[in-house]
Design brief:
Order of helices and strands: EEEEEEEHHH
Largest sheet: 5 strands, antiparallel
């Protein structure tokens, strides 16, 4: 999954797509409502392509976890972020058996599934074509 250009901003709900640059920040567009606004250097911005999920043997990039979840769900939406934490842990364990349950908090699980469904809804989660 190519998650380049998709970011999360601390204190703001949802995900954002980078659409431009400014002298002292970037211009982002909300995936929730399509509104554009500036994100300054003082905002805590996290690129989804840089986020990893803790595993017992190694940390796995979020894109790879979403690849596995996409395959498990056959390209359909997954659990709602309002599902129980136990359901989320079980579903993630089906997709990524090695995730560290002690270091992946329930708030992380809620974001993981909410972001998955949001990205899927906007057509951003597509399996990458493999070369033959």
């Amino acid at each position: 999954m190519d998650l380049s250009g998709i970011i999360s901003i601390a204190g703001k709900s949802g995900l954002f797509k980078m659409v431009g640059q400014m002298k002292n920040g970037i211009v982002v567009e909300s995936l929730l409502d399509g509104k554009r606004f500036p994100a300054y250097a003082t905002n805590k911005v996290s690129a989804l392509e840089d986020i990893s999920i803790y595993g017992y043997s190694e940390d796995v990039p979020l894109g790879e976890v979403y690849d596995k979840l996409y395959a498990l769900e056959d390209g359909k939406p997954s659990l709602s972020a309002k599902a129980s934490v136990d359901e989320m842990r079980t579903r993630l364990r089906e997709a990524f058996e090695d995730f560290d349950e002690e270091r992946v908090y329930s708030s992380d699980l809620k974001k993981l599934f909410a972001w998955y469904n949001l990205l899927l809804e906007h057509g951003i989660l597509k399996p990458e074509a493999t070369e033959e």
